Amino acid sequence: MQAQSYTVWFAVLIAAITAICQIIPGRTRPDLFFAVTVEPAFRRTPEGLRILARYRMILWVSAAVAIALAILAAMPLAAMLVEACGLIGALVDAHRRTLPHAVSPSPIREIDLPAAAPEQMPGWPVVQALPVVFLAALGAWAIRHMDRLPQRVPIHWGLHGADRWVEAAPRKIVALVGVHAMLCLMMVAMAWGVLHWSRRIAASGPAVLGERRFRQRLVWMLIVVEYLMPFPAAAALLGLGSRSITIWGAALTAAVVIFLIALVRAGQGGSLNAPDPGVPVGDRTPDSCWKWGLFYINPADPSILVEKRFGIGYTLNLGNRWAWVMLALVLLPAAFGLIFLR
Amino acid sequence: MTLRIDLGSSVPVYRQIVDGLRILLVNGELKAGDSLPAVRRLALDLGVHFNTVAEAYRTLAAEGWLETARRAGTQVVARTPQNPSDPAAAESFQRRLLELVAEWQSRGLAGGQVARELRRVAEGLERS
Asked: How far apart, in whole angstroms, are the C-alpha atoms of residue B40 and residue A303?
């Protein structure tokens, strides 16, 4: 029964990912098509429509195979692998077919002067620090009241409640709140990075406003997720039970889905609400620095984060050494948990 | 008001930033107290090295147009006019003007066309 519900969950997840990938090409910047800078009208030409149809066909065929593997053969991991390969294959194929139609983006940059006030994180720094302060207080309380804690505390939950525990020892409690604090700090770092380490595509005119609103929504999403992050640690140490984790999971999913819908509706970088620039401007990154349309590697670019060419949000400039530091920080909570919560 | 940079031009970005800002400053479009984008911000938005922007700001600060403070960022300041009778500055100006004229002509602009452009600029200066 438990295995069956997992396979159904995997099938639903695969269908959801495929549905999102189906609509993504229509939500990128108008002059970027499968991560290639093109004339904004290209996507409506017969060739553009052919490339899109082929991409969607590969996408759904691989999704059908993956769902069959998940439900009929009960092989969820193999299903996810097929889905991932299908998605990357469809994207790389469409990218390759679009490349002959690439155009050079406008080299002109116009910057509005005098400079507008820099974009700020929501609230005072104390607002971003509160979840971490809460976790520190929770950890201190738990260590002072070890007698009130159960003998073992849950550290992981599956579809059917807690499935991994550790003994309630001070070292483990510090590790538990530490992992959650790192996740909170990671969210704050990503929000800060979006505001301060990424390039504005539109630096003048009315498009600036749409792009600014897009970034603010993304930053708010990260801060909301940050505020939800400490809950599993609190539930584990205060013995709140699996039902509370289910409610938390639903709240987290709902929050992320609501923000994602708002971001997808606005289009990548708020570009779908912006006026047509007339000439293709792309995303101010050279096509030649994008590998398969997915990975951006440009050592000459000072940006740590750049807009994704396929998808919504930002990705790392892997040619910048600070991007590797950021990547290491993203992996740190997982590594810390694996080492100290065994 | 905008600062326009052509990243495809053979003129270095540093020079384009200095020249573009200087025009806005001389024309009075940028006034004392106006803020300029931070070095890091402008470098990120243009996709150029931080030093390129920092060098441009330093040049304008040396001319007395800008002031850079750690917290307040870069701001336009009220500038005391420099000594116009400095012979070295006058000579440097003449040399740059001749270089610019030579560059225009080498790009195919006829002598008469260059003269007309220079006259138009001179008339604008006399009016102001």
From this structure: 10
**Residue written as tokens 């001179």?**
B122
Measured in degrees and rounded to the nearest 5, phi and psi for residue B36 equal -110, 155
Tokens of A41: 């009208």
Q: Are B47 and A303 in contact (CB under 8 A)?
A: yes
In whole angstroms, give the CA distance from residue A61 to residue A55. 10
Contact: A107, B8; criterion CB under 8 Å = yes
Please check whether residue A11 is in contact with residue A17, taking contact to mean a CB–CB distance below 8 angstroms: no
- Contact criterion met (CB below 8 Å) for A59 and A90: yes
Supply the ipTM of this predicted assembly. Answer: 0.81
Residue whose pair of structure tokens reads 């910048």 in the numeric block: A320
Question: How many other C-beta atoms lie within 10 A of the C-beta of residue A142?
Answer: 23
Residue for token pair 């620039």 = A277
Q: Over the stretch B43-59, which tens digit does the pLDDT of each residue have? A: 998 889 999 999 999 99
A203 has a chain B CB within 8 A of its CB: yes
Give CA–CA dist B55/B64, Å, rounded. 14
Strand partners, B76: B66
Q: Note whether A320 contacts B: Cβ–Cβ < 8 A.
A: no
- Residue pLDDT, tens place only, A59-100: 999 999 999 988 888 787 888 899 999 999 999 999 999 999
Helix (H/G/I), strand (E/B), else coil: B34: coil
Using alpha carbons, select from A279, A326, A281 the residue that is nearest to residue A303: A326
| pTM score, whole prediction | 0.86
